[in-house]
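Lab meeting prep.
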Amino acid sequence: MSRFVQEIRFAPSTGGASIAYATSGRGWPLVRAGHWMTHLEWDWQMPVWGPWIEALSTRYRLIRYDNRGCGLSSAATEPVLLETLVTDLAAVIDAAGHERVALLGASQGGAAAIAYAAANPHRVSHLVLCDAFARGALVRQPGQRPMIDALARLVEDGWGQDNAAFRQVFTTQFFPGASQEQAKAFNDMQRLSCSPAQAARIVSGFAEIDASPHLAALRCPTLVMHCRGDARIPFEEGRFLAANIAGARFEILDSINHVPLAGEPAFDRMMALIDGFLPGSAGGAGEPAFAGLSARERDLLELLAQGLDNAQIAARLGLAEKTVRNNVSALFTRLEVENRAQAIVRARQAGFGIG
């Protein structure tokens, strides 16, 4: 289980749907676009997504959510459409209360992240795509229709059975390099994440999604990462994304899994790439002035970044106002700034005061 505490809330979306979202960590807001097989209550406790959540929450204000029909979000009976996915992503960003966010589009979350970022350039600071796609399987290769239909039937017939053999088909395709513990957890996540009928709708719907018309409109800095041996989303699709997004950076991850798993070098490299690409993480990673701050100094900086004056900070921390004034002056020296305004700017750039 993660050492971070998550807060779960619900964002109203179209058709009366409620989209469950969770926040954890502190720093620049990073929204993980919804993808298949998530459950806010369970995924952070499992060895597949848990290490992702732990690592990202250490660096950022991580916001993640369950797509409608999955996890804690409202049930769904309608087909899975790109327009609905983007609407739900927008609902979560609005509900979380951030004017600008970085977006992480992993796997099926890539299409929604691409479309949202293209339509809302003022709301997206950075875009990270990991083993993502703009074009579903049937857009890339229309001849795959028989295989997609067969997979959808397999899912609907076998998804909810106690026997994990049906779900193991997907686990093997997604994560051929998984440990026994990781494979079992992913088998369980499939059953927990959504109903067999919804899983079948996801298989069919994502195969037909096409966000490629939005690629040319992207203007935010974009990092595209793709596992060399990904059997779920072809490596060529990652290359396609990078080639069609102006100025995108393309990084190859040496893994046979759909996305990197904790314990393989590709996971650590992926997190290092994200950390070097996005704005300052919690505590200002990479800046010695922030790295050396004590817990009390971080608390003080957080309150400064929120715009509180010395009297308000004193009341919040239970200190004398003179003590706060002296501590603030010492903090200016540590941060190598001359005044409160400069300290606030640096603090907010590092992710303080925006959670």
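Slide two material, second protein:
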Amino acid sequence: MRIKTISSREVYRNPWTSVREDVIERANGKRGIYGVVDKDPACIVIPLEVTAEGEFVYLIEQFRYTVGARHWELPQGGWEVAEVEPEDLARGELREETGLMAERMTLLSTLQIAYGVMNQKHYVFLAEGLTMGEPEPDAEESDLVVKRVGVRDFEEMILDGTIVDNCSVAAWGLYRLWRERR
């Protein structure tokens, strides 16, 4: 079933997002309105550290204005540019938010974030061979908290509702499937 776009107009724009309203015609001939949020590509990074003591991931906690609360999640974000090398983006976001640099970056997949309303791609990377440097947060990330947690504790945070970010949960599930099949 295809939906035909009859007309499209931008109703809002800022440096991070634009919103458009499309008049559409469905396969059954009925017309309607569809709101679409346009955003440039983003990435999410799974910073995995394996030591003699076990496996660990690095999380960030930040205030998310849209829900009015602080939440734990995997490092993620975008640069507000349409053309970007996914690995450069992932390395940059990882360094910016955590200070970590990765020896190896593996692209696990490209997902869509909330494609019922938004057309943003989300590159999912596994970062390994980590070394610590200085974080370089942007203005909205000045209050980030970085935390190293054991994988079992991280998974418990997902199961008990401490981590509610669907992108972090999806990225971790993707990683677990990828690892299982290697």
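Talking points for slide two:
Residues 42-181 form a domain with the Nucleoside Triphosphate Pyrophosphohydrolase fold (CATH 3.90.79.10).
Helices lie at 86-98, 151-159, 166-181.
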